[in-house]
Amino acid sequence: MLGDRLRRGIGRADTRPVIGAAFSVTLASAQGGDEMAFACLFRDVQPPLLRYLQVITPEAEDVAGDAWLQVVKGLPRFRGGEEAFRAWLFTIARHRAVDAGRARSRRPDLPLAVTEVAEPPTAPDTADLALEAISTRSVLALIKTLPPDHAEIIMLRVVAGLDAADVARIVGKTPGAVRVTAHRALRRLSDLAERAGVTQ
Amino acid sequence: MPGFPFPGRPGGELDEPLLDMIIARRALPPDAPQEMHDLARMLGAVAGPAEPGELAGEAAMRAAFSQAASSAGISSAARRPVRRRRPRHRGEDRSRARLAAVMVVAAAGLGSVLAAYSDVLPSPIQQLAHVAVAAPAPHSSGPPQPATMGTGRPAPRPDPAASQPAPGPRHSAGIAPLSGHATSSHPQFTPGTSRPTGYPGSSASCAPSRPPSPSPSEKASTHPTPTPWPTAVTCGGAPRGYAVQPTVYPDVP
């Protein structure tokens, strides 16, 4: 089981589009009101969406729900493939996260999301980061220690599976800047992992 | 500023191809630095499959989806994609109107024939029916229906042997000639040149390598397979004989 997990982690990711060739059919079914088809779309994108939002906002589940509600409303008008669908959903989610952050900033009694996200770790437990016991949550915790724009781009490029052009549109940068930032983020992440004793 | 090197490795820019591979989630070459493999492994963990709790909101979202679909007039039972309805042709409307008229007349005529065979019609009419559809000749015991020929005396009973066949097509009294369309139960549809595409199905699979299986109605369809959409979609059962499946034009950017 552990070996499978490690092998699965090498150069592969399960949050990449999994519907694949059947996406257009699934999308059409969902647009026609097929609840099971919509469930397929949900299961395909919800895990990476939730993890992305956990990096950029403390209200990940609420924001994800708001994003899906907006998707439900706009689904009949959507046109595009699976990558475009993900880009659309993550764009909506980011906007909802920004709105949620603004709403929180107007409520002084609640902690600000930015400071919570940008705080240096709760550094993940070294044991959790050991390759033998690496987990989604522990890696997410490590990614959260990166600068916010680094963390966001890593999540959008790697976890969400969006290409540089889509990520650039979402975060408001050029594709070249996205690529450079992604490289820096990965190098910093590797450095952090080494300091934490994860890498050898 | 070029990327700072990995610990122990000069020239960080040399790692960029490997970093691009990691970002693209492609397998690294076996001789790639260990830290690259470790990095890929870490990111693979965070990009793994759904974990417990991550799909907890599915039921609520499905309910919201169903509610939205219902309010938009689309039920999950319909399972039809957004599509443009095929415009109804004038010929179809005319055919249906003609069919309705014919059926009304046919019903009236059928009643007349039955009455003729029951020998309950007035004698002149019964006589006509006798000639036309071989109904019984007017019977003296029937209802008193003095049929005169203008002389005040009952008309002589015609000699069957001398009766001449009615000129023209043999029509039962009161029954209008049936048009060719009356024999068909349904308007004549020509199967569309393009089959409906993207018919949704409740069996849309979430499995990445298993496309939805076609419904029996889809399997029995004689419509040509469209491109590029797969045929393996259930449509919720359009009745056979009715080529009213609309054409779907999914918009592809």
Outline the structure in words.
The complex is a heterodimer of chains A (200) and B (253). Chain A contains eleven helices and no strands. Chain A is mainly alpha-helical and 200 residues long. Chain A has a single domain (2-194), classed as Rna Polymerase Sigma Factor, Chain: A (Orthogonal Bundle). In chain A, α3 (35-56) packs across α5 (82-105). Residues 1-14 and 114-121 of chain A have low confidence and may be disordered. Chain B is an all-alpha fold. Among the domains of chain B are: 20-44, no CATH class; 104-154 and 166-175, no CATH class. Chain B contains six helices and no strands. Chain B has helices at residues 16-23, 34-46, 58-71, 90-117, 123-133, 216-220. The longest helix of chain B has 28 residues, at 90-117. Chain B is rod-shaped and about 115 Å long. Chain B starts with 15 loop residues before the first helix and ends in a 33-residue tail after the last helix. The model of chain B is unreliable at 1-5, 142-152, 154-204 and 208-253 (pLDDT under 50). Classes of the chains: A mainly alpha (200), B mainly alpha (253). At the A-B interface, α1, α2, α3, α4 and α8 of A face α1, α2 and α3 of B.
